[in-house]
Design a protein that fits this description.
By secondary structure, the chain is of the alpha/beta class. The protein has one domain. The protein is 46% helix and 17% strand. Strands 1-2-3 form a 3-stranded parallel sheet, with helices on one face. Helix 2 links the parallel strand 1 and strand 2. Helix 2 runs parallel beside helix 3. It is globular.
Length: 69
């Protein structure tokens, strides 16, 4: 089931995904990007597929978090 706010953003063609980088495994850099995405009004964030990064990102934002590998 898709997050309601995310679904609405897609339906209204207003979605904004912020990508931290496929090979960015630096927790400090990813955290800074996640915080900026949250404050900047992003719809969701995309981070590298690492369990520790996912846990950290989920603790920093209420935005949906996608992972890329």
């Amino acid at each position: 089931m898709m997050n309601f706010a995310l679904q609405q953003a897609f339906e209204q063609r207003q979605a904004l995904k912020v990508i931290s980088g496929l090979m960015n495994f630096d927790p400090a850099r990813v955290a800074a990007i996640v915080r900026a995405a949250t404050q900047g009004g992003a719809t969701f964030v995309d981070i590298a597929a690492d369990p520790n990064l996912v846990q950290m990102a989920r603790g920093l934002t209420s935005l949906p978090v996608c992972v890329s590998a």
